Please model this.
Amino acid sequence: MRDTVRKLQQVLRTQQVDVAIFGRPENVAYVTGIAPEGPEWAGVAMAGGPMTAVLFAETADSGELILANTEEWIVGQRELHVLRKLYPAFSNDHAYDPQKQYIDALTKEVNRLLSRSVRIGIDDGVPHMVVESLRRRGVDGLVNITEVAARCRRIKTPSEIALIRECARINDIGQQACRSFAKPGITELELWHHVVQRMEDEVGARLTVSGELVSGPRTAKPNYPGGPTTRILQPADTVILDLSVRLSGYWTDTTNTLVLSASPSTSLITCFSAAKAAFEAVIKELGPGQTCADVEKVARQTLSGFGFLPQHYLGHQIGTTVNELPRLVSYDSSPIEPGMVFAIEPGAYEGEGGSFGARLEKNIVVTETGCEILSNFPWGLDPASK
Model:
């Protein structure tokens, strides 16, 4: 059984919840290891409800993944940590009511618990029609466990860290592809396609990828997501690639800054040096005993020493979503704990009317004694990495 399932079951028991129903994609991925896709996929659009995980608090009876027959391709032959339950949503030969089929499938296993007093936990991704159906069946003890699940996901288990580590390796390949193919005359979109292709070739499958790729004067001011566009890269351009990749349900999020010149300008070197110094200062500070605000303050003071003010937050956790709590901002006093995985992303920019900016981001896991950098790609302007 997956360690995330055991961990969440233990939390459910402390909350006196007998069975939990999850509709939010990040919670479904956490329980099952399968990341639901969006409605842009035809098979998902045909479903009667979101891909849903049902988790029982008893260890011997872990749970189910409820999905439409049109969504089975998402799971494929991958190993699940819960039972797979398909309901018919569409057929060439028979008309189905997808919503009814979805509700019937979801409540079938729950019904056997209704002979005794049970508490059912739901997250806010569970459709209202399911809540109403449960209440019509006499279920009164519904508990919103959205925040309970979010807190459970904050500290990553060993299996989660292993999955994020592998995703970081694939992300490294994307960043290295950007270094290899970034040349004058290529468009931002063409460069982006090279990045994605290299990663998908390595995995041997399609990936979910987001982020931005911007070049030239658009690097001087953060305006995420500002690209890629059809802009053609010019000699001496600065290029910023912010790359978010999902693999096996888990995300990584990195950023690198490149320059298409053998002699970067003094202004760009100043931006890059500020961002790098802030990143290195955070790495020295990040560890148990600190708070998010403590770490943000270190980065802010470092940037200030170069004459810059922060133009965006310092970073955020990652996991089954690309941006999880806590975030590294001045008002967040959340403690830094072992097992947290952060994307650290200080940036320094000339601002409106300027020509240059730099942002540097790698993924970090907090350990008992400090932190470990999971990302291994070289910074774009480091002489030693050329």
User: Anything to note?
Assistant: The first strand starts at residue 19 and ends at 22. Residues 9 and 58 are 7 Å apart (CA to CA).
